[in-house]
Design goal:
With about 90 residues, the protein is mostly helical. It is about 50% helix and about 0% strand. It is globular.
Length: about 90
């Protein structure tokens, strides 16, 4: 919502076959990219209170109707949570 508000008066164009909304979500996903060894994942699961990167990305956007609209995801697809969680 903050990005939409900040860019509301700008003429944003598609780039590299991605709409501005799609580029926003791609950028968000890239911000959580990372690789960890299986041993590190196990250790972090026991000591780190934060969710693994995969869930901090996919878990968030799969609850967002804006993501579904941006990528034309059909109901029932893996990136559409049928029991959406809404905090705000």
């Amino acid at each position: 919502m903050a990005w939409k508000d900040e860019t509301k008066n700008q003429k944003l164009e598609p780039l590299d076959d991605l709409t501005p909304d799609q580029r926003f979500f791609v950028g968000y996903g890239q911000s959580w990219c990372g690789q960890s060894r299986d041993e590190t994942k196990r250790l972090r699961a026991n000591v780190d209170p934060h969710s693994p990167e995969k869930y901090r990305t996919n878990g968030v956007v799969s609850n967002m109707p804006q993501f579904q609209e941006a990528f034309h995801c059909k109901a029932g697809s893996p990136m559409v949570n049928q029991n959406r969680c809404r905090v705000w």
